[in-house]
UniProtKB/TrEMBL annotation:
It comes from the Bacteria. PANTHER family: 2,5-DIAMINO-6-RIBOSYLAMINO-4(3H)-PYRIMIDINONE 5'-PHOSPHATE REDUCTASE (PTHR38011:SF11), DIHYDROFOLATE REDUCTASE FAMILY PROTEIN (AFU_ORTHOLOGUE AFUA_8G06820) (PTHR38011). Transmembrane segments: none annotated. Coiled coil: none annotated. This is Dihydrofolate reductase family protein. Residues 3-178 form the Bacterial bifunctional deaminase-reductase C-terminal domain. It holds the Pfam family RibD_C. InterPro entries: DHFR-like_dom_sf, RibDG_C, Riboflavin_Biosynth_HTPR.
Amino acid sequence: MSKLIYSMISSLDGYAEAEEGGLGTGAEDPEVHTFINDLFRPVGTYLYGRRMYETMVYWETARNEPDQPPHILQYAEDWRAAEKVVFSTTLESVSSERTRIERTFDPDAIRALKAESDQDLTVDGPTLAAQAIAAGLVDEYHLFITTSVVGGGKRFFPDGVRLDLELVEERSFDSGLIYARYRTR
């Protein structure tokens, strides 16, 4: 059975999306990006909400831009190789290969997908992740914590949810970014 992983960049005060945009520095660092590439290369399926998909679809054509560094080209290749499921009631079509739209988030369908898959899955975006967390589907949480306090926005963890997590890995980067991987107990 595969794992469902929720991973996002987070501000120091716990926001995955700031009200005024921008979560601070660190994620654009080539060392961090290469680490993220290696960490998520084995992922077989990305679960996205519409807004996160619209952000990530950049990777479908990133290889076509001139002078891309190797770590960017590698991430684009890995992203294109994975399956993508976009949960949206408004998106009419997708512009990336290996991508399908689902109109509703069905926890039982995600459980079945986890059971059938031999590769891990990720749920990306705080709104969609909140549904997966509430349904008890998330097995691991990967936080990339920036050096900024943003004071508001969408929280990494949804309100009203209590979790007992075990820290299984941590790493700090020269940019100040901290990676922390937690497993659900």
